[in-house]
Amino acid sequence: MLEKDKQLEIHRDVLCICRRPSAVRVKQLKCQREGCTLWLHQQCYRRKYCPYCCLEMLNPFCVTSAILVPPTVLFESDEKLVGRGKFRLTPTQQQMVVLPENQIQMWCMRFEDDQSGTQWPLNSFLMVNESPLAMETALSASTHDHCITILDIEKQGTNSVVLMGDPDPKSGSDFCFGVRIGKQLSEEMVSQNIVAESFEGAVDRCIKILTKGGSGADMIQLYKLNLVCPLSRSKVKCPARLRGCQHMSSFDLISFLKYTRSHKEWCCPICNRKYPSFALVLDGFLMPIVSALPENSAYVIAQEEVVGPEIVPIFSSSDEENVDVVVSADPLANEENVDVVVSADPLANEENVDVVVSADPLADEGNVDVVVSDPLALGLLSQYGTDSE
């Protein structure tokens, strides 16, 4: 088959807003989200992602369990935008909606705008089974962050939904809507879908941040790193960050997800920059360090809000081919003043010291320093973090 013919091939998983999945010889565009199998007509739909992937990227705490009304275009009638749809719950779906984590939701968005989230026409009015919709939140043209939950439905019969609104002469009338069964996810379930940075990529990122975009030839020898989550004010158990942030600090993943769920805003708590939800990743640089810390390690929150658990990996030999990493506590550190030390043989000369992360063991509680040094030692840190698993 020729390449041109492949583009015109009819796919079984076509779910276009034109509601014509069997349209002949129409160029199709596959949703660009990894794992999604839906196709849409290129001339009908301008977004890179299908409506359901857009909804899940906008709100990862709710995923689509079933499609009740497929994406449908609102048409103009008597100077109004009108969208109509009908659905009937199957026996399986009737059992699904009984569960508290499942909700019947109506959504609406622009199909020409690839940047906005859910958005509704001006003066929107919803009806379900010829009655005004009982909804939890009032609709407006600036409602970008949620779907509308349908509360009153006929579980045994056919349900009809109608969405009406005024066209906006400034922004156009390119709206589509649909109805789905959305399943609410817990923070722990969402965290399982967050991918981690590669260690090599994390090392490159750290070098660029510390050298301000340099090649890493001139490394910063001393850098203070905050290991307290700015949201929970406790130790970081699972370090996470947002792609694009130009800082070394991270935050706790579960604490961030809980905060984001309540505030409905994906914003870095460290630099206050806003990002989409798919920019959230696990910190590939701090993950080996945090995973190597003992569970009963003590944390001291100093005046500068810098903390450190008690852990001292020490090289048992200066021979580079026979390096042993041993976890031990600093015998000189008392229980009330615990510092983090991840360092090389202190007797090694300065040219061969592979100090990856270190805290000054003599530092007081208000001045805990973390050293990030020769990037060649980062490979050893990665090996140490792997062995600790």
Question: How would you sum up this structure, described in words?
Answer:
This protein folds into three domains: 9-49, no CATH class; 52-185, Jelly Rolls, CATH 2.60.120; 189-372, Herpes Virus-1, CATH 3.30.40. The radius of gyration is 27 Å and the shape is elongated. The chain has 389 residues and is α+β, with helices and mostly antiparallel strands. The longest helix has 12 residues, at 199-210. The chain has helices at residues 3-7, 51-58, 91-98, 187-191, 199-210, 253-263, 287-291, 378-388; strands spanning 28-30, 39-41, 62-73, 75-77, 80-88, 102-110, 122-128, 131-132, 148-149, 158-166, 175-184, 239-242, 251-252, 280-282, 312-315, 325-328, 341-342, 357-359, 370-372. Mean pLDDT is 70; it is low at 1-12 and 300-389. It starts with a helix and ends with a helix. It has eight helices and 19 strands. A hairpin with a 2-residue loop joins β7 (122-128) and β8. 17% of the residues lie in helices and 24% in strands. Strands 4-5-10-7-8 form a five-stranded antiparallel β-sheet, with no helix packed on it. Residues 213-295 form the SP-RING-type domain. It comes from Papaver somniferum (Opium poppy). This is SP-RING-type domain-containing protein. InterPro entries: Znf_MIZ, Znf_RING/FYVE/PHD. One of its GO terms (molecular function) is SUMO ligase activity.
